[in-house]
Amino acid sequence: MKILITGNMGYVGPVLTRYLRARYPHAVIIGYDSGFFGHCLTGAGLLPEAQADVQHFGDARLLPKSLLEGVDAVVQLAAVSNDPMGNRYEAVTDDINHRAAVRTAELARDAGVKNYVFASSCSMYGAAEGGPRRETDQLNPLTAYARSKVATERGLQTIDLGGMVSTALRFATACGMSPRTRLDLVLNDFVACALAAGEITVLSDGTPWRPLIHVEDMARAIDWAIHREAGNGGQFLAVNTGCNEWNYQVRDLAGAVAEAISGTRVSINTDAPPDKRSYSVDFSLYRELAPGHQPQVSLAEAILGLKNGLEGMNFRDASFRNSQFMRLKVLERHMEEGRLGEDLHWIR
User: Fold this and answer.
1) Are 42 and 16 in contact (CB under 8 A)?
2) Residue 118 · residue 99 · CB < 8 Å
3) Could you tell me which residues come within 8 angstroms of residue 275 by beta carbon, excluding any fewer than 6 positions away?
4) Most-buried pick from 160, 161, 279, 344 (CB within 10 A)?
5) Judging by DSSP bridges, how do beta strands 247-249 and 209-214 pair with one another?
6) How does pLDDT run across 163-214, given as a tens digit for each residue?
7) 265-296, pLDDT tens digit by residue?
């Protein structure tokens, strides 16, 4: 088996590579990444890409056709990966997250790839009232990042897939420790605040709903998708990926972290205007289609893993929101130092 992972040097990629290497020791794993965040290691005892067979550096918009020769599955992780970055680089977000992803799918189809997996997002439900969102419910993307995910799914539905099976995994919000941990994710941020300052400051009124999924369980879902057959969900499938038990209000996440890390105070801005990005999600279809790849990590385990991982790094940076743990800050620093252009191409 030969697997190509685009965007493998981010937050999810190292965990996915480790998972696949352990599960399929004889597989050929190929990484392709721009390298923006390659230096942002967090407690890694090994360069994560050492567990791949080959690492290529390049822009997702310029993926060479030759890399797809003999590949069985493509995992499209490459993306401008959150709302702050998407808002800052809106046009580039569409180019990378949408147009490049659809182009890669077309190249994969032409190369005879069997499975194409797209890392989509539940954020496309946006402001959602009336109960947990199902895949058939109306989409309401509120940000450039969410709109790019919707556009990609529509593109994948539109193109002729030939004999290829395509899966859009609408992931819940990621969390958990990784060899390149991000702290611009809600649960990760709360644990970092608790360790560095002893206080979690919830900037909203705490009422928005968020579904979460641990990064290890994201890898488990991708493993299912790279083997999925058309008879199990259709040639193209968009599926909410997570579990119903992991739908939480933001204030409850803060409370869970405070309970796990003694001495933590929680401050909620009850006067803040409501965060419109609020959605709970129904994951029943994923449970039905992938019973052997369901999430296994609990919220308590995710918090403990982050606590132990960050403490193992002697993390105490109360100013971490200005650090390399925030992906937008990394891009800005590359630009300030003349390495990266506003189009997110390296300056050669």
Assistant:
1) no
2) no
3) 204, 205, 208, 250
4) 279
5) antiparallel
6) 999 999 999 999 999 999 999 999 999 999 999 999 998 988 888 999 999 9
7) 999 887 777 677 889 999 999 999 999 999 99
By residue count, the chain amounts to 348
Supply angle C-alpha 56, 59, 63, rounded to 5.
Answer: 70
Q: Identify the burial level of 16 via C-beta atoms within 10 angstroms of its C-beta, where 0-12 means exposed, 13-18 middle and 19 or more buried.
A: buried
Tokens of 92: 């580039």
**d(C-alpha 125, C-alpha 146), whole Å:** 8
Amino acid at 199: E
Summarize pLDDT for 109-143 with one digit per residue, the tens.
999 999 999 999 999 999 888 889 999 999 999 99
Evaluate if pTM is beyond 0.90: yes
127: exposed, middle or buried (Cβ count in 10 Å: 0-12, 13-18, 19+) = middle
In angstroms, the CA 119 to CA 145 distance is 12
> Could you tell me the domains of the chain?
2-336 (3.40.50.720)
Triad 103, 156, 214: Cα angle to 5° = 95
Closest CA to 133 of 273, 13, 270, 239: 239
Name the one residue in this structure whose structure tokens are 């002697």: 314
Give Cα separations from 39 to 34, 70, 89 (angstroms).
12, 30, 22
